[in-house]
Write a structure and sequence with these properties.
mainly alpha; Substrate Binding Domain Of Dnak, Chain:A, Domain 2
Protein backbone atom coordinates (compact mmCIF):
# COMPACT_ATOMS: atom_id res chain seq x y z
CA UNK A 1 0.00 0.00 0.00
CA UNK A 2 1.11 3.51 -0.81
CA UNK A 3 2.13 5.45 2.30
CA UNK A 4 0.72 8.73 0.98
CA UNK A 5 -2.66 7.08 0.36
CA UNK A 6 -2.68 5.74 3.91
CA UNK A 7 -1.81 9.16 5.30
CA UNK A 8 -4.69 10.71 3.32
CA UNK A 9 -7.09 8.02 4.57
CA UNK A 10 -6.08 8.81 8.15
CA UNK A 11 -6.66 12.53 7.62
CA UNK A 12 -9.99 11.90 5.85
CA UNK A 13 -11.07 9.77 8.80
CA UNK A 14 -10.06 12.48 11.27
CA UNK A 15 -12.08 15.04 9.31
CA UNK A 16 -15.18 12.82 9.23
CA UNK A 17 -14.84 12.16 12.96
CA UNK A 18 -14.48 15.85 13.81
CA UNK A 19 -17.53 16.68 11.69
CA UNK A 20 -19.52 13.89 13.34
CA UNK A 21 -18.61 15.00 16.87
CA UNK A 22 -19.49 18.61 16.04
CA UNK A 23 -22.84 17.63 14.49
CA UNK A 24 -23.68 15.45 17.49
CA UNK A 25 -22.85 18.28 19.88
CA UNK A 26 -24.98 20.71 17.86
CA UNK A 27 -27.90 18.27 18.18
CA UNK A 28 -27.70 18.73 21.93
CA UNK A 29 -26.12 15.34 22.59
CA UNK A 30 -29.36 13.54 21.67
CA UNK A 31 -30.18 12.23 18.20
CA UNK A 32 -33.48 12.41 16.31
CA UNK A 33 -34.69 9.25 18.04
CA UNK A 34 -33.74 10.47 21.51
CA UNK A 35 -30.57 8.38 21.82
CA UNK A 36 -27.76 9.74 23.96
CA UNK A 37 -24.87 10.67 21.66
CA UNK A 38 -22.23 11.08 24.38
CA UNK A 39 -20.35 7.89 23.48
CA UNK A 40 -20.49 8.76 19.78
CA UNK A 41 -19.00 12.18 20.50
CA UNK A 42 -16.28 10.76 22.75
CA UNK A 43 -15.26 8.02 20.33
CA UNK A 44 -15.33 10.40 17.37
CA UNK A 45 -13.03 12.82 19.14
CA UNK A 46 -10.64 10.06 20.23
CA UNK A 47 -10.62 8.58 16.75
CA UNK A 48 -9.97 11.98 15.15
CA UNK A 49 -6.95 12.56 17.38
CA UNK A 50 -5.53 9.07 16.88
CA UNK A 51 -6.11 9.10 13.12
CA UNK A 52 -4.36 12.44 12.81
CA UNK A 53 -1.39 11.24 14.84
CA UNK A 54 -1.23 7.97 12.92
CA UNK A 55 -1.22 9.89 9.63
CA UNK A 56 1.50 12.22 10.82
CA UNK A 57 3.70 9.39 12.11
CA UNK A 58 3.23 7.45 8.88
CA UNK A 59 4.06 10.53 6.79
CA UNK A 60 7.37 11.00 8.53
CA UNK A 61 8.24 7.29 8.50
CA UNK A 62 8.32 7.08 12.28
CA UNK A 63 9.39 3.83 13.89
CA UNK A 64 6.31 4.24 16.11
CA UNK A 65 3.82 4.33 13.23
CA UNK A 66 3.05 0.58 13.31
CA UNK A 67 2.22 0.74 17.03
CA UNK A 68 -0.12 3.66 16.43
CA UNK A 69 -1.71 1.88 13.47
CA UNK A 70 -2.89 -0.83 15.88
CA UNK A 71 -4.34 1.72 18.28
CA UNK A 72 -5.82 3.75 15.42
CA UNK A 73 -7.50 0.67 13.95
CA UNK A 74 -8.97 -0.20 17.36
CA UNK A 75 -10.32 3.33 17.84
CA UNK A 76 -11.70 3.41 14.30
CA UNK A 77 -13.49 0.10 14.78
CA UNK A 78 -15.05 1.26 18.06
CA UNK A 79 -16.12 4.57 16.53
CA UNK A 80 -17.57 2.90 13.44
CA UNK A 81 -19.52 0.45 15.58
CA UNK A 82 -21.06 3.27 17.62
CA UNK A 83 -21.76 5.48 14.60
CA UNK A 84 -23.44 2.60 12.77
CA UNK A 85 -26.06 2.55 15.54
CA UNK A 86 -27.13 6.03 14.42
CA UNK A 87 -26.32 5.86 10.69
CA UNK A 88 -29.90 5.24 9.59
CA UNK A 89 -30.98 8.69 10.80
CA UNK A 90 -27.75 10.69 11.03
CA UNK A 91 -25.86 11.25 7.77
CA UNK A 92 -22.79 12.46 9.63
CA UNK A 93 -22.66 9.21 11.60
CA UNK A 94 -22.96 7.19 8.40
CA UNK A 95 -20.11 9.14 6.78
CA UNK A 96 -18.00 8.80 9.91
CA UNK A 97 -18.59 5.05 10.18
CA UNK A 98 -17.58 4.55 6.54
CA UNK A 99 -14.40 6.62 6.95
CA UNK A 100 -13.52 4.77 10.15
CA UNK A 101 -14.01 1.35 8.56
CA UNK A 102 -11.77 2.33 5.65
CA UNK A 103 -9.07 3.68 7.96
CA UNK A 104 -9.16 0.58 10.17
CA UNK A 105 -8.86 -1.69 7.13
CA UNK A 106 -5.90 0.27 5.80
CA UNK A 107 -4.19 0.30 9.20
CA UNK A 108 -4.54 -3.48 9.39
CA UNK A 109 -3.19 -3.94 5.86
CA UNK A 110 -0.24 -1.62 6.57
CA UNK A 111 0.69 -3.68 9.63
CA UNK A 112 0.84 -6.90 7.61
Amino acid sequence: MDMSAHVQTCFDCAKACEECATACIQMGDVDAKGHDMTLCITLSRDCADLSTLCGRLTARGSQFAPSFMRVCAEACEACAEECEKHADHSAHCKTCAEACRKCAEECHSMMN
